[in-house]
């Protein structure tokens, strides 16, 4: 029988869970899931000084938001006795030794535990990069622990992988140089070698290592910006992997079916925030109508808290949903729209320069006359039937009889919005309602 696939994600709680870690975790999750295996989350907190509870919380909360469940959870800080047992065993076999050292700083210990390097070549068949060979002579006798109570990264990670039965180590290419040390330790412990897959790094648009200046932030910051977790996973999956066709939109379940380590590219993939926005917009379209409406209102109402209190506001909010939906890529865009003032005129009558009501070189008197025609025509509409199509039909009857439709539609739109860019006047009027529309047209006149 084929051994059960076990993968792991071992983040260090010394910083926020960033986008590169999200993709590494995703690839490990997908590979385990599609093979009916197990995915482990292991907090590597052997660095006691830099490890913080807040960062561990950020990691676990990120997994919760991304809806990537893990089968088992461990903390290295709770496994000290296990590492101690293995260190003692290797000391007895003289595979490792206590090395007297000159302390680098005052107060530091004067000894460490080093691994006796056999100075040989290590070779492995990487599932992404192919065959890799490494001469370990250059590594010399490397440090694996400060003392029996304080193992360092390379030793703890090997013991954990061996004890937990990890079969596949899927990680970034920046870990390639760690692999020879870890294989040497594993062989000394008598463990079975897992398969390695070193995935390409995520690069910025300038092909340098990804950083905040490229727009990359921690996973939960994407939540704060209003991205969907499904969209973020879809996006990072495609940085360095593709299904072999033009398809770009996947749910997590679909990624489980489609993902393949064989189709992971060798070279780095570029982080493109515009691509993320497009993917997120496509995922919003997949949501049920009620879910879209609920999210838009949840972001819209707090963003409008500074607007003048108006009894009509509660009626206006639901009417804005279609306008907002077609203009956003993520929920956070709603807040940005409000801050830019793009929707303010729906809640407060705008102040504007009257000269902007004039369409091209149309005489002011004619603009005034056209506004009067529009106001009179709309006044005749039933308040209960003051809807977009009725308003459009009414105003177009007038506009089609003028030299240019703009002579009517421009001043009406500007009178209602006071904005250079806005939805068409029919939509604005239907949202404002009859009384407010007539009031704004009268002000313009």
From TrEMBL:
It is an enzyme of class 6 (ligase). GO terms for molecular function: ATP binding; glutamate-tRNA ligase activity; tRNA binding; zinc ion binding. It catalyses: tRNA(Glu) + L-glutamate + ATP = L-glutamyl-tRNA(Glu) + AMP + diphosphate. Keywords: Aminoacyl-tRNA synthetase, ATP-binding, Coiled coil, Cytoplasm, Ligase, Nucleotide-binding, Protein biosynthesis. Its EC number is 6.1.1.17. A motif ('KMSKS' region) lies at residues 209-213. GO terms for cellular component: cytosol. The keyword tRNA processing does not apply. GO terms for biological process: glutamyl-tRNA aminoacylation. It comes from the Bacteria. It is found in: Cytoplasm. Residues 364-391 form a coiled coil. Its main location: cytoplasm. Residues 300-445 form the Aminoacyl-tRNA synthetase class I anticodon-binding domain. The keyword Chloroplast does not apply. Residues 104-278 form the Glutamyl/glutaminyl-tRNA synthetase class Ib catalytic domain. Gene3D superfamilies: 1.10.10.350, Glutamyl-trna Synthetase, Domain 2, Glutamyl-tRNA Synthetase, Domain 3, HUPs. InterPro entries: aa-tRNA-synth_I_cd-bd, aa-tRNA-synth_I_codon-bd_sub2, aa_tRNA-synth_I_cd-bd_sf, Glu-tRNA-ligase_bac/mito, Glu/Gln-tRNA-synth, Glu/Gln-tRNA-synth_Ib_cat-dom, Glu_tRNA_lig_a-bdl, GluQ/Sye. A motif ('HIGH' region) lies at residues 11-21. Pfam families: Anticodon_2, tRNA-synt_1c. Monomer. Catalyzes the attachment of glutamate to tRNA(Glu) in a two-step reaction: glutamate is first activated by ATP to form Glu-AMP and then transferred to the acceptor end of tRNA(Glu). Belongs to the class-I aminoacyl-tRNA synthetase family. Glutamate--tRNA ligase type 1 subfamily. This is Glutamate--tRNA ligase. It comes from Candidatus Nomurabacteria bacterium RIFCSPLOWO2_01_FULL_41_12. The lineage of its organism: Bacteria, Candidatus Nomuraibacteriota.
